[in-house]
Design goal:
This protein is of the alpha+beta class. The protein contains three helices and five strands; from the N terminus they run H-H-E-E-E-E-E-H. The strands form two sheets. The protein has a three-stranded antiparallel beta sheet with strand order 1-2-5. A hairpin with a 6-residue loop joins strand 3 and strand 4. The longest helix has 20 residues. The protein is elongated and about 60 Å long. 0% of the residues are buried.
Length: 96
């Protein structure tokens, strides 16, 4: 299966909501994604009821190894974005 792209999502939304202009839907989508990014950048949690939660998790620095050379490296600490699926989305995906 191919992934659904932003343009494909906008196209589907414009079919569902024909009274809205495609450029307005694209702008709304961009604003929506930018607000999620900004919240995560500010260490805030983004909760979309029924769908899920985006949150940051800190990963500690650790020792790792380059598999090609066997050299030991220090991987610096970093932040990861995690997603916890909501119950409603879980039920849809698992057809419950």
């Amino acid at each position: 299966k191919l992934p659904i792209t932003k343009s494909e999502l906008v196209k589907q939304l414009s079919k569902t909501y024909p009274n809205l202009l495609k450029k307005d839907l694209e702008k709304f989508f961009d604003i929506f994604i930018d607000e999620i990014k900004l919240a995560l950048k500010n260490d805030e949690r983004v909760e979309l009821r029924g769908w899920g939660i985006f949150y940051q998790k800190n990963q500690k620095s650790r020792n790792s190894r380059n598999p090609q050379t066997g050299e030991t490296l220090i991987t610096p600490k970093k932040k990861n974005v995690n997603f916890k699926m909501g119950k409603e989305l879980f039920n849809i995906i698992n057809e419950k």
